[in-house]
Amino acid sequence: MLSAAEIVGALEHQTKEERLTVVPWPERDELLRKGETSIDLRLGRWFRSFKQTRTPSVSLVGRIPRDSDEPSETSRTKQHFVPFGSNYVLHPGRFVLGVTLEWLRLPASLSGYVTGKSSLGRHGLVIETAAGIHPQFSGCLTLELANVGEVPLEIYPGMPICQIFLHRTQPGEEREPDRFSGRRKPMLSPPKADETFMRLVDSRPDGA
Questions:
Q1: Which domains does the chain have, with CATH numbers?
Q2: Which of 10, 99, 110, 166 lies in disulfide reach of 44, CB 3.0 to 4.6 Å?
Q3: How far is residue 184's CA from residue 28's CA, in Å, rounded to a whole number?
Q4: Residue 34: CB partners within 8 Å, gap ≥ 6?
């Protein structure tokens, strides 16, 4: 795990390809003063909520034979823009997609993972983010925000929402661009089809 000094060094690396990019830039003096091993990230202004529809179910395994078409993202969700100074109210038992205010780019030598902030979790706000960030990722991080508490929660664009921890990664072969890279708004991406799963579905039961 990178120390505060190593994080600042990565942010200030002279070589663009090896530089950790975070926009807006984090407060580096504050990071060094506190000696923290993570970078706080803030909540962005775009949200995507889920509509209450009559859709009976949604497949989470990618392509699978069905008689009816899968509902589209626009039919299942609604996009919201919340300006700075306004809030989004997340009610108990509800779930919404958000994004980080910061745009990130990780070099090939770094990977990371994201966690929520315990001060928010104690009030019932759970950041169910896909924690791992692969080398060479670029874009804003999509955050899965859930209220597991008993009262509505007001969340504000610009507030600290999560933190990223960074690790050195042994550079390997050039990776294909991540399908989530480059995004600035929360998107409901369909699950990626798994070839092994599809072979299992297509196989005959033993003894058939």
A1: 4-52+73-170 (2.70.40.10)
A2: 99
A3: 24
A4: 4
Is residue 132 within 8 A of residue 82, CB to CB? The reply is no
Q: Which is catalytic among the residues 6, 36, 70, 144?
A: 144
Give pTM, 2 decimals. 0.81
Residue 128 among the catalytic residues: no
- 69 CB-contact burial (10 Å; exposed 0-12 / middle 13-18 / buried 19+): exposed
Partners of 154 in beta bridges: 89
Instruction: Tell me how far apart the alpha carbons of residues 207 and 200 are, in angstroms, rounded to a whole number.
Output: 15
Helix (H) or strand (E) holding 160: strand 160-168
Coarse DSSP helix, strand, coil percentages of the chain, rounded to the nearest 5 percent: 15, 30, 50
Average confidence (pLDDT) per 10 residues, the chain, 208 residues: 94 93 91 90 95 73 56 76 97 95 96 93 85 92 94 98 94 59 72 78 66
Q: Count of residues for the chain?
A: 208
In the chain, the N- to C-terminal Cα span, in Å, equals: 52
